[in-house]
């Protein structure tokens, strides 16, 4: 079993998250409790070792906040859409399974895109091809080729937004080039 | 609750009342969707989306009514875990459902996964046959 050492910087987001969960569960953010939580987090991260998530090292807060707001809005829209389709169309709804190749090959990016896409209107990840980083998406109410193109564009746009927030420099450069071209 | 409700209290009560009613409506939407949609995949849509929003609204109204800041982190953590786990479970069920053919093909306008799955199944069968051939040759 090979255990490559994880640098503290790489592990820090995980530890901070664990401490926040600890504080939230105790509903107590006093320094003593947080310190004990940090101690436990360090022990847990050592004992129950998981492969480190490869973060790109950059996180653009200015891009993340609007993305989060838009995301919340789309979650609301998604729910209303499902409500409407359930009542209005019900058994007659037409769907499609669409392959969407992603730009990024990092696991984090594919996972994040899959999560966001599953929560916004009309799409659900059915299958992931990790080797080619292709998402197979089940779209609700996709009636024709035009809708398929729209769905594909939406997924690619979501990924672009995520790359702008936390993609690596290379991915960002490739994206900017693509948009500029 | 203070004995004399002031304007702020009224507003908070009104907002949380709206949140609770809309949240309950979202759960109703999920239930209607489960009953009305024709196959497993479209039911997964109904089971994931309205329920995430419904939980958000109900948690928000709980937070508004309790009026103590330290419940907000718990509620937020609860919702984040919901956001993280719902797509995963939906994906697992959807994936298994597709492979076991729990879907109505005639209701799909496009299916770009079918060819891939068929190819993968064929490849798996061939490698199995190869193994069988080797075994008989030995």
Reconstruct the topology from this structure.
The complex is a heterodimer of chains A (181) and B (138).
Chain A: H1 8-26, H2 31-47, H3 61-88, E1 95-101, H4 107-119, E2 123-129, E3 134-139, H5 145-166, H6 169-180
Antiparallel strand pairs in A: 1-3, 2-3
Helix pairs in contact in A: 1-2, 3-5, 4-5
Chain B: H1 7-36, H2 40-66, H3 71-99, E1 108-111, H4 114-137
Tell me which protein chains meet in the greatest interface and how many residues each side has.
A-B, 49 and 46 residues
Q: Can you list the strand order of the major beta sheet of chain A?
A: 1-3-2
> Number of helical runs of chain B?
4
* Proportion of beta-strand residues of chain A: 5-15%
Structural class of chain B: mainly alpha
Any idea what the shape of chain B is?
Answer: elongated
What keyword list fits this structure?
heterodimer; A: 181 residues; 3 strands; B: 138 residues; mainly alpha; 4 helices; 80% helix; 3% strand; disordered C terminus
What does this 3D model show about the protein?
The complex is a heterodimer of chains A (181) and B (138). Chain A has six helices and three strands, in the order H-H-H-E-H-E-E-H-H. With 181 residues, chain A is mainly alpha-helical. Chain A has a three-stranded antiparallel β-sheet, covered by helices on one side. In chain A, helix 1 crosses helix 2, helix 3 runs antiparallel to helix 5 and helix 4 crosses helix 5. Chain A is globular. The termini of chain A are far apart. In chain A, 30% of the residues are buried. With 138 residues, chain B is mainly α. Chain B is 80% helix and 3% strand. Chain B contains four helices and one strand, in the order H-H-H-E-H. In chain B, helix 2 runs antiparallel to helix 3. Chain B starts with 6 loop residues before the first helix and ends with a helix. At the A-B interface, helix 1, helix 3, strand 1, helix 4 and strand 2 of A face helix 1, helix 2, helix 3, strand 1 and helix 4 of B. Strand 1 of chain A pairs parallel with strand 1 of chain B, so a sheet runs across the interface.
